[in-house]
């Protein structure tokens, strides 16, 4: 077998189709003992914008794979030395996601089937036209891009899950350690001062409330994610829902001389959603608007409607949210430092956002530091069946 030096990589012209990962041209290796075939594959693929390098034997190609990290290998099945089938197996050992296209002669169609069974993605029978090769390569790279993307998404989900568990454990540990310390000191004192005893027990109780709030919010979030909180897309009257929520918080608001204004339309405001989910969502927004307000401030709930949607605004005259934090607000456990004097788990807005999107809506925020914030929830307006039909006919 004559030893031909591997070709130098052919430089790649820019072509967005020629990528497996955005921003970089895909690298393709061609392994074929037929020099003419190698040269023509190189030419065709380089012209389409790929980085191509070819090798005249399986062993030479395999040796170069770790360094080149190709996205795809075009492999001739019939070669002297290491067989095409063995090359496929070894390539997959090195990179399970590499896309392999086999080149087959007329007589080796059965082997092509065998090659596909052992993991080759596609095959191109000889002789083939430049367009045939390009099409198969393009399809193969699209496949690789999808596989890599779903792998990446899976990794991100796993990271988030792990980070989440660590966070929750940490959040629970802080109050638990405090309770443990108070109880430990009390146990060691023979005759604790009754006033101190009372004060410390009160602090322990406050800490148990914190733990309970975290667990309650965490369970609510898990329920939304598991599709157990937002059950239906039914007709819900937001005017009533908001009125009930505002009533619940009259005492809390009065303690800080905060005025609650219900500007929802008296005739009702029907939207598509789940009563339970919507109550959880607006409960969070109203409590935030009170918690992060100033004494003597105001909270107003209003709505703007079109035939298709209802945009409910919960506006406050509170501390406001600096621009740099606005995107982070809806993430789990995110709390702005200034807000930490106020109790909270940092899960309320994460829950609100998920509930809104489960119902086909969305949530956004506008804010000015020391002036106030407005949270807007966009929901689908409810239309009576005959109303919907009329619009459909129009
Ligand atoms: P909880 O889980 O009990 O609701 P929380 O209120 O801290 O706790 P979120 O409702 O998710 O959690 O809010 C996250 C953070 O966003 C708050 O800690 C606060 O820093 C900020 N924030 C939320 N709403 C407002 C608001 N209306 N004005 C100013 N800051 C706000
Ligand atoms: Mg909150």
Provide a descriptive summary of the structure in words.
With 394 residues, this protein is an alpha/beta fold. The chain has 11 helices and 12 strands. The chain has a 5-stranded parallel β-sheet, sandwiched between helices. A 5-stranded mixed β-sheet has the order 7-9-10-12-11. The chain has a two-stranded antiparallel sheet with strand order 6-8. Strand 11 (362-368) and strand 12 (372-380) form a beta hairpin. It starts with 26 loop residues before the first strand and ends with a helix. The chain binds adenosine-5'-triphosphate and magnesium ion. Magnesium ion binds at residues 284, 287-288, 344, 348.
SSE string, helix = H, strand = E? Answer: EHEHEHEHEHHEHHEEHEEHEEH
What characterizes the major β-sheet?
5 strands, parallel
CA(first)-CA(last) distance:
76 Å
Q: Which structural class is indicated by helix and strand composition?
A: alpha/beta
Rg value: 32 Å
Ligand species: adenosine-5'-triphosphate, magnesium ion
DSSP, total strands: 12
The unreliable regions are 1-6, 10-14
Give me the oligomer status. single chain
Task: Provide a count of the helices.
Answer: 11
Strand order of the largest sheet: 2-1-3-4-5
Helix content: 40-55%
- Strand-residue fraction? 15-25%
Q: In terms of topology, how is this protein built?
A:
Layout: E1 27-31, H1 35-47, E2 51-55, H2 58-68, E3 72-76, H3 84-94, E4 99-104, H4 109-117, E5 122-125, H5 130-188, H6 194-225, E6 234-237, H7 238-248, H8 250-255, E7 259-262, E8 270-273, H9 275-291, E9 298-305, E10 309-316, H10 348-358, E11 362-368, E12 372-380, H11 385-393
Parallel strand pairs: 1-2, 1-3, 3-4, 4-5, 7-9
Antiparallel strand pairs: 6-8, 9-10, 10-12, 11-12
């Amino acid at each position: 077998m004559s030893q031909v030096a591997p070709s130098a990589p052919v430089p790649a012209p820019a072509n967005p189709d020629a990528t497996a990962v955005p921003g970089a041209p895909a690298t393709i290796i061609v392994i074929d003992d037929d020099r003419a075939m190698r040269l023509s594959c190189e030419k065709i693929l380089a012209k389409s914008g790929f980085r191509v390098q070819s090798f005249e034997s399986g062993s030479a190609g395999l040796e170069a794979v770790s360094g080149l990290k190709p996205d795809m290998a075009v492999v001739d099945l019939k070669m002297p030395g290491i067989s095409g089938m063995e090359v496929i197996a070894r390539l997959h050992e090195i990179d399970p996601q590499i896309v392999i296209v086999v080149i087959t002669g007329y007589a080796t169609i059965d082997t092509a089937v065998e090659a596909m069974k052992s993991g080759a993605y596609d095959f191109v029978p000889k002789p083939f036209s430049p367009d045939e090769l390009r099409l198969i390569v393009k399809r193969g790279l699209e496949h690789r891009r999808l596989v890599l993307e779903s792998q990446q998404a899976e990794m991100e989900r796993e990271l988030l899950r792990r980070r989440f568990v660590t966070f929750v454990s940490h959040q629970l540990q802080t109050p638990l350690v405090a309770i443990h310390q108070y109880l430990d000191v009390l146990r060691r004192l023979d005759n604790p001062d009754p006033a101190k005893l009372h004060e410390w027990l009160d602090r322990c109780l406050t800490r148990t409330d914190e733990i309970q709030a975290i667990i309650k919010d965490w369970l609510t979030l898990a329920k939304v994610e598991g599709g157990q909180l937002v059950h239906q897309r039914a007709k819900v009257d937001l005017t009533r829902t908001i009125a009930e929520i505002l009533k619940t918080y009259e005492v809390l608001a009065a303690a800080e001389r905060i005025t609650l204004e219900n500007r929802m339309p008296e005739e009702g405001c029907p939207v598509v959603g789940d009563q339970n989910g919507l109550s959880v969502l607006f409960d969070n927004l109203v409590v935030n608007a009170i918690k992060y307000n100033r004494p003597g401030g105001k909270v107003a709930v209003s709505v703007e409607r079109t035939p298709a949607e209802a945009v409910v605004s919960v506006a406050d005259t509170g501390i406001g949210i600096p621009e740099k934090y606005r995107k982070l607000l809806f993430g789990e456990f995110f709390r702005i430092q200034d807000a930490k004097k106020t109790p909270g788990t940092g899960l309320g807005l994460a829950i609100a956002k998920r509930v809104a999107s489960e119902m086909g809506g969305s949530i956004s925020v506008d804010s000015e530091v020391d002036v106030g914030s407005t949270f807007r929830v966009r929901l689908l307006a409810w239309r009576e069946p005959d109303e919907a039909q009329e619009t459909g006919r129009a």
